[in-house]
Write a structure and sequence with these properties.
It contains 13 helices and five strands. By secondary structure, the chain is mainly alpha-helical. The chain is globular, with a radius of gyration of 21 Å. The structure holds tryptophan.
């Protein structure tokens, strides 16, 4: 019996991943490598569904790939690859799009949210069919489990529906995947607005893995805190303090009461500095340095990308072949 298989993807749409990405997703990716047969992909095809710049995209794809290696994705244990380098993704997406209802695709809430700003007239058809491409990513590798955030639940439901529909019509072709929704408890909030999830769109409240250590310290020192002065985990009344305590917990894995007990008779300022230094030492310094070292040798990175794409393509090609035969190509 082989290990159960897993696939997940991340978009190269930022210059750096942030600690919310790490604690909310990437750390689970790393851990699953011991128990699962893992496929992890930098989804650059998805990254062109909204406005983009080719040079920046290329750089971000490379940096994303390097950061995944830096945080602990092991290219020998797992299959780590760039989506556009495996042509079967686009090929399967086309076939699946012919099995997706127009209305069905139109019900995807992420599309509706993303078009709210610019309006449908200015949104691409690629943005509309984005979830079908995501389904192709997953189904090509016969993934049983897909670690994603809560916001991706509906896309996973569509993926399952498409797999079941295709299997019913043509016989068992795809594994029907399960969403593996990463626990809320690991959710890191914006340092400037601790009611919102940490996000690259609010850079002052967002701690990027590639931030310089002194920039990180400054972000922690200016983190928004709450009224009162007691340091206690109370997300409703003390969202700012609770977010800092959650970050400590994410790093050290201690009980909340143990963490709180270290701050009796200490002030908010002490907590901010403690959290900042902890994040710098345990996360930023090691991951940043490793990423920089990897980026310094672009040939080596390109060769890792090629190896990953070849490994992925072996699996993807077998699935696509059976799909093509079944539909009469
Ligand atoms: N849509 C996902 C996100 O924005 C990224 C993604 C693309 C993905 N393909 C995937 C996630 C396949 C899991 C599996 O987070």
């Amino acid at each position: 019996m082989g290990k159960p298989s897993v696939l997940s993807g991340i978009q190269p749409t930022a210059d750096s991943f942030h600690i919310g990405n790490y604690f909310g997703a990437l750390r689970q990716w790393v851990q699953m490598q011991d128990t699962h047969d893992c496929f992890y992909t930098v989804v650059d095809l998805h990254a062109i569904t909204s406005e983009f710049d080719p040079k920046i995209l290329k750089k971000r794809t490379l940096t994303s790939f390097a950061q995944l290696l830096a945080v602990g994705i092991d290219s020998l244990k797992s299959t780590l690859f760039v989506q556009s380098q495996v042509p079967q993704h686009a090929q399967l997406a086309w076939v699946l799009s012919c099995f997706t209802g127009f209305g069905e695709a139109g019900r995807m809430t992420q599309f509706k949210d993303k078009t709210q700003k610019g309006g449908q007239e200015r949104s691409s058809v690629g943005l509309f069919t984005y979830p079908i491409l995501q389904a192709a990513d997953i189904l090509l590798y016969q993934a049983q489990s897909v670690p994603v955030g809560e916001d991706q639940r509906q896309h996973l439901e569509l993926t399952r529906d498409l797999a079941i529909r295709f299997n019913n019509q043509f016989g068992k072709t795809f594994v029907v995947p399960e969403a593996f929704i990463v626990k809320e408890s690991a959710k890191i909030l914006d340092l400037q607005d601790p009611t919102a999830k940490m996000s690259k769109s609010s850079p002052q409240g967002c701690v990027f893995i590639l931030d310089e250590p002194d920039v990180v310290m400054k972000k922690f020192k200016t983190a928004l805190t709450d009224s009162g002065k007691e340091i206690k985990y109370d997300p409703t009344n003390k969202p700012g303090i609770s977010n800092l305590l959650s970050i400590i917990k994410a790093v050290t894995n201690e009980d909340m009461t143990t963490i709180e007990s270290q701050f009796v008779n200490k002030g908010y300022g002490d907590l901010k500095i403690y959290t900042g230094e902890l994040v710098v030492e345990k996360i930023i310094k090691p991951f940043r340095e490793k990423t920089m070292t990897l980026l310094a040798d672009e040939n080596q990175l390109n060769s890792l990308m090629n190896d990953g794409a070849q490994k992925a393509e072996k699996v993807a090609a077998a699935t696509l072949k059976s799909v093509y035969e079944k539909v009469g190509f």
